[in-house]
Amino acid sequence: MQLTYLFVFSAIILAGAYFIYGKYVFKKFKINNDNLTPSHRLNDGVDYVPSKPIVVLGHHFASIAGAGPIVGPIIAITFGWVPAVIWILIGGVFFGAVHDLGSMVASLRNDGKSIGVIIQNNIGKKGKRLFILFSFSTLILIIAVFADIIAKTFVSNPGVASASILFIILAVLFGLVTKWTGNRKKAFLIASVLGVTLMYFFVYVGMQIPFVLNYQVWIYILLIYAFIASVTPVSMLLQPRDYLNSFLLYGLILAAIVGVFVANPTIAMDTKVHVTDENLGYLFPVLFVTIACGAISGFHSLVASGTTSKQLDKETDAKLVGFGGMLIESFLAIISVGAVVVLTRSDYLSRLGAEGPVPLFADGLGTIISSMGVPESFAVGFVALTVSAFALTTLDTCTRLARFTLQEYFEDVKQPVGKKISQNRYISTGVVVVLSVLLLGSGGFATLWPIFGSANQLLAALALLTISVWLIKKKINPTFVTIPMFFMFTVTLSSLGLFAWQNFQKDAYVLSIIAAILFVLSFALIFLAKKSLTKEAKVKELV
């Protein structure tokens, strides 16, 4: 079978889903431009900033993509590429896109606040605190995992580090120019063309002037950068950098598609499904936890309700940004699968163990892109740089989101310490960075990814639970949300239980305790949600 067929089939499914199922979900959420968005009502020039749909899509897509839709699918292919593709397509359409759009719309109707505040408004204050503890823990895990991935990439490929630094400088300049020109469309278009051109030029420049530092130094530099990026106005760095970087990933996707059509590679990997793996465990539930961002990811709910909802100009922009952004990420996950299925299973397994998923993706896709006449070394470097750039966007977005959640947790605390944390973004961000450094001390990517995957997917189940309760209280049939919710709870609770037991047997007590705590927190939130709905039903009976 030719890889071209897989790409065309997947593109048709995802594009059709946007126009058909997306229209259905759009109507279910009753999205209406008559509702003034929080970016206009609460515009503060720092976090709440009304922005163009294409800019918000760039920020949102860059933030949710990261390395997740690349790392997860490539690891999950261990069970076979066919089940991975099936879950990416079904999960992306009926689970992930609904989850992302639902989180975004619910936040828009609640002053652009996070899922934690939405829980408080619909389930109660205890529910909010439990969810914030859960989401904050997950965000710290993500920061630690992605800092480790980026630092190792910078060490192994110093040219990527140089280009990334140039991108940040370019983003700041782009932000200043667009702020100065205001809403003039022609000026924005000219700045965009110039900015994207310079960005691709910096890919070449970065490769010529490698910036060499050791792993530990990069970790500290990355976390200092994340601190600065999370406290500056979104229009200064976050928005312009993510917007420009999104064209880097769009370029990667386009290059991958053209490269596949030019090279017309054959899928060398067999279609056999492997129910178990000695390292990962059983296909169920591990496959659905490992793929994560390519199909559904709880982290997306934090981005959608944390930063994106504060920037949407109109409610109708949510379909393109929320539903559409998720489907683009699912196609990126399909490309990740395509980058490695051109190998035989034995070659894939040996290289995955020796190199890891990111270099395997860069080499595979770089080889395909080189069929267009691009030098293979440059193509491989370009792919590695793209992964690194998006991991970097996830890193600083996570730091900002962790700051939001910490501030929301302490906004009800009356003591002086609580007030300082909730009102001072520098103090709250400092707490986030320090905790991330401490967690990195307990292990790197290989150690933290499994617990991150389980926590991330359980976060998705909890977000779906929140959206379901919100819809029920709005008297909207939530079936299209509750079915994915029940499935995700089944998957993630099973995974966390197994993970806690396996790490306990290995004497990895810290990770085992974290898994057990997350397991208990989720049941507590389910109980509180049920209690809230039961109480409301009794009130209606009395009335």
From TrEMBL:
Record domain CstA N-terminal: where: 5-349, 353-495
UniProt keyword list: Cell membrane, Membrane, Transmembrane, Transmembrane helix
Bilayer-spanning residue ranges: 6-26, 61-79, 85-108, 129-147, 159-177, 189-211, 217-238, 247-268, 280-299, 320-343, 377-395, 426-449, 455-472, 479-502, 508-528
Membrane-topology descriptor: Multi-pass membrane protein
Cell compartments where the protein resides: Cell membrane
Primary location class: membrane
InterPro entries per record: CstA, CstA_N
UniProt name for this protein: Carbon starvation protein A
